[in-house]
Amino acid sequence: MSTRRYAEDTKVPAMQSRREIEELLQKHGADQFLSGTMRGQAMVGFRIKSLQVKIVLAMPEGTTTKDQKEERRRWRALLLVIKAKLEAVASGIALLEDEFLAHTVMADGQTVGQWARPQIKAMYEDGKMPPMLPGPKP
Predict the structure, then answer these.
(1) At what angle do helices 14-27 and 65-90 cross, to 10 degrees?
(2) Rounded to an integer, what distance in angstroms lies between the CA atom of residue 72 and that of residue 31?
(3) In whole angstroms, how far apart are CA 83 and each of 15, 70, 80?
(4) pTM of the full structure
């Protein structure tokens, strides 16, 4: 059984989804917003309650109808993800910082996710994991 992907048949132009993302973020207190595209990726950046966030979205590189359809789908999916995160925060289910942790921009311009992924991978590979609970080491 094949699984349908979210918004795979959307006709909503990518620019409209980008505008909706910006409006949603402004509604939730973002005071800065930018978005852009370059070959193979798109990016949304915003500041909300002093938290700087950057989300990079892989995009198809071609210009075929299939590629454009996938680009529209991914922008709709990004809107859904951001909307869900903001709703979780607004509903008291999660903290803003936790919801966007992997996408939080650090002082050097990297996101927490870009910084942490290689370290987590190394921990699993060498077997040296941090303790689950604080306290004296056995």
Answers:
(1) 10
(2) 26
(3) 17, 20, 5
(4) 0.88
Residue type, 125: E
Query: What is the secondary structure of 41-76 as a DSSP string?
Result: EEEEEEEETTEEEEEEEE-----SHHHHHHHHHHHH
Phi-psi domain of 96 (left: phi exceeds 0; alpha: psi -120 through 50; beta: other): alpha
- And the tokens for 97? 């910082």
Can you tell me the distance from the alpha carbon of 31 to that of 50, in angstroms, rounded to the nearest whole number?
A: 9
* Closest C-alpha to 101, from 134, 58, 57, 52: 52
pLDDT tens-digit map of 105-127: 999 999 999 999 998 998 889 98
Alpha carbon dihedral 117, 122, 123, 126, in 10-degree steps, equals 170
